[in-house]
UniProtKB/TrEMBL annotation:
Highest taxon in the source lineage: Eukaryota
Domain Bicarbonate transporter-like transmembrane: 41-203
Main location, first listed in the record: membrane
Bilayer disposition of the protein: Multi-pass membrane protein
Similarity comment: family membership: Belongs to the anion exchanger (TC 2.A.31) family.
Transmembrane segments: 65-87, 99-127, 147-164, 213-233, 245-265, 298-314
Annotated GO MF terms: borate efflux transmembrane transporter activity; solute:inorganic anion antiporter activity
Keywords, sorted A to Z: Membrane, Transmembrane, Transmembrane helix, Vacuole
Keyword Membrane (UniProt): yes
Protein name: Bicarbonate transporter-like transmembrane domain-containing protein
Classification via InterPro entries: HCO3_transpt-like_TM_dom, HCO3_transpt_euk
């Protein structure tokens, strides 16, 4: 190498000490393949899950699935009851039937078409707060639109953005997101659950103190009994089969027992508030099941877009 070339190379290295670092880490900071890679992530997910897709269904023929299904059922019903109570009192257009059916439809479609048969889906607190906030906003507007039509377009916009996100592989950007945001959002979800639990109990005082105190007693009874079953399942005082039953069915037994005691003896005479429900297989307030969201005015369709973006961020 000529002396001049060697000197210029050394000078470039001294002036730019990060040049080699940039070269060595270039592949690490490469962006997702937008051009020529549309839908690559979806295809890779299907290819990765295809070898185990059938076994995910056949492996369910096991006794251990029964207690797991029972636990997940009640784990979905409890927040569904709490959140649907808030929605039906606020909007008069949402109820427990809508919440449970929507959870079933979302879980069924995602488990079958999403190549994830063992997916667990359920309602969460932030979505309930989001729906209630939208209702409070649009009801204050002059010539307010139909709430269900508007919220239908919010969900439609969120679905479209989710499809775009999956097609353009935007999920790859999650590797640049720290766990701090995930933990913060998890804390928020947990706090919403606690807040709604307390809110459901405090609503009992509007119907009288007797019903409110009975509700508090039953809530504490269910909580203590559930932990008692879990503690007994770890003790050597019973046979292993009995301890396994305590661990598997302790929470469902506590829930059913506490709910049944509300109709027993003097507890029943306290007239505690119960969940407002309609006839079987009927939507809230007697409305039709089909929401004709396509009849919404174009102005409100555009206004629903920012709310759809917020819903996309929540997911």
């Amino acid at each position: 190498m000529p002396p001049g070339s060697l000197a210029s190379a050394l000078e470039h290295t001294l002036l730019s000490p990060s040049a080699t670092l940039r070269g060595s880490h270039a592949s690490r900071w490469s962006l997702p393949p937008f051009i020529g890679g549309l839908g690559v992530g979806i295809t890779q997910d299907f290819r990765a899950r295809a070898p185990w897709y059938i076994s995910d269904w056949t492996d369910a023929w096991n006794y251990r699935v029964i207690p797991a299904t029972t636990l997940i059922f009640f784990a979905n019903v409890l927040p569904g009851i709490a959140f649907s109570l808030d929605l039906v009192e606020t909007t008069q257009q949402y109820g427990l039937s809508e919440v449970l059916i929507s959870c079933f439809m979302a879980a069924f479609i995602f488990s079958v078409l999403g190549a994830q048969p063992l997916t667990i889906a359920g309602v969460t607190g932030p979505i309930t707060v989001f729906n209630k906030t939208i209702y409070d906003i649009i009801e204050k507007q002059p010539n307010a639109p139909n709430y269900l039509h508007f919220i239908g377009w919010v969900y439609m916009w969120a679905a479209i953005i989710h499809w775009i996100t999956a097609t353009l592989n935007w999920c790859n950007f999650l590797k640049y997101v720290t766990r701090f945001s995930c933990d913060t959002f998890g804390f928020y979800v947990s706090w919403v659950y606690l807040q709604y639990g307390v809110q459901v109990i405090t609503r009992q005082f509007s119907g009288g103190t007797d019903g409110a105190f009975v509700a508090i007693i039953l809530a504490l009874l269910m909580l203590v009994t559930s932990f008692l079953f879990q503690a007994l399942s770890k003790r050597a005082c019973f046979h292993s089969i009995i301890r396994r039953c305590f661990a598997d069915y302790g929470m469902p037994i506590s829930l059913v027992a506490a709910s049944g005691m509300a109709y027993w003896g003097r507890f029943n005479s306290a007239n505690s508030s119960t969940l407002p429900v309609g006839a079987a297989f009927r939507a809230a307030n007697g409305r039709a099941w089909l929401v004709k969201f396509w009849e919404l005015d174009g102005k409100w369709v555009g206004i629903a877009l920012p709310f759809g973006i917020v819903l996309w961020i929540l997911f």
